[in-house]
Design brief:
The protein is mainly alpha-helical. It is built from 15 helices and no strands.
Length: 337
């Protein structure tokens, strides 16, 4: 690939990462704590189906992460790649866990915030600090980073299993079958399940065996047809929930986007920052909306649909502001992304 082609490809990857984060925002935008009294209503059902329609978001992130890790992989690159993941995954994971622990320990004690914060102050003990910093007790959404680090540690296993012809296809077929069989459940502390292993393995397989597949640019009519298929898949998923949904959504998203048409923008580079802060911003926006909106079914859906929009309007400018005026702090918070 030429450098220019690489640039277009990674712009597309950044766009897909951003879309994945937006999908995660809509998964976490549920407002059942505020509107729980509407459980069982049409609004509740609509919101539940909309959340389900975004279930492709995390698998797409696992797929992309594996593809990038195993891109041009050789054994000589294993330690350098692990070392880079320490910077991009482990350090931000520990830092943000520590930040959220401090926030949960201090904010509920402030008189002007205690009335709007629903949780008791986090106890400052060695055990609590360990669970908070290493096991994301007060930042549960960071389970994804921990699980991704765990899969990255097993990179040698994925490489041996997925780099050889026939063996790799057989293993991938086995993992696909496990999406439906699920012979056992992984320990809760790992946050692993078969679908995440499958999508990570698929990304590794494509990167090792057929990386050119992701560089193909379908004709315009095919891209349009794939784009039109996305809302149809969402509708079908509401009636026939299946693991095939995420696979088909990822395929449609990937090939419906013309990488040569993706504009270069810094907006798509702030995905991790948005991910790290969205829960905190969500909690504030949800409380404001609940105080201002009538407590009706329509308000419940409006609140759900708009919380991610308002969060993005806050977090994207904040990320750019930090990146411009305190680049060192921003790099530390985002692992140099």
């Amino acid at each position: 690939m030429t450098d220019d082609y690489n640039q277009h490809f990674f712009q597309k990857v950044n766009l897909l990462r951003f879309l994945s984060i937006v999908g995660v925002l809509y998964i976490h935008a549920e407002n059942w704590d505020q509107f729980g009294f509407l459980s069982g209503t049409s609004a509740y059902v609509v919101e539940k189906e909309l959340i389900g329609s975004c279930e492709w978001a995390v698998p797409l992130f696992f797929f992309i992460s594996a593809f990038l890790f195993f891109k041009n992989f050789t054994w000589d690159l294993l330690i350098p790649k692990w070392r880079r993941r320490v910077k991009t995954l482990l350090l931000p994971y520990l830092l943000w866990n520590a930040i959220y622990f401090i926030l949960f320990a201090i904010l509920p004690k402030l008189p002007f915030l205690s009335s709007v914060i629903n949780s008791a102050p986090a106890p400052i003990t060695v055990n609590e600090m360990f669970q908070s910093i290493f096991l994301h007790k007060y930042s549960g959404f960071l389970w994804f980073v921990k699980t991704l680090m765990l899969l990255t540690l097993y990179a040698p296993v994925f490489y041996v299993a997925l780099s050889k012809r026939w063996i790799s296809e057989s293993i991938l077929l086995f993992l696909f079958a496990m999406l439906f069989v699920k012979p056992f459940v992984f320990p809760a502390v790992t946050n692993l399940n078969w679908r995440f292993i499958f999508f990570y393995a698929t990304g590794a397989y494509v990167s090792l065996r057929c990386p050119q597949v992701l560089l193909k640019r379908p004709p315009r009519n095919i891209r349009i047809a794939l784009g039109v298929s996305i809302p149809l898949l969402i509708i079908l998923n509401a009636f026939y929930d299946t693991e095939l949904y995420s696979i088909l959504m990822i395929v449609c998203l990937w090939y419906s986007i013309d990488m040569n048409a993706v504009a270069e923008t810094k907006v798509f580079d702030v995905s991790f920052f948005i991910y790290a802060l969205h829960i905190l911003v969500f909690s504030i926006i949800k409380k404001i909306q609940y105080a201002l909106l009538p407590h009706t079914e329509i308000s419940m859906v409006i609140s759900y649909l708009t919380v991610p929009v308002f969060a993005l309007l806050v977090l994207i400018p904040l990320a750019n502001l930090l990146r411009k005026h305190t680049p060192g702090v921003y790099k530390l918070l985002t692992g140099g992304r």
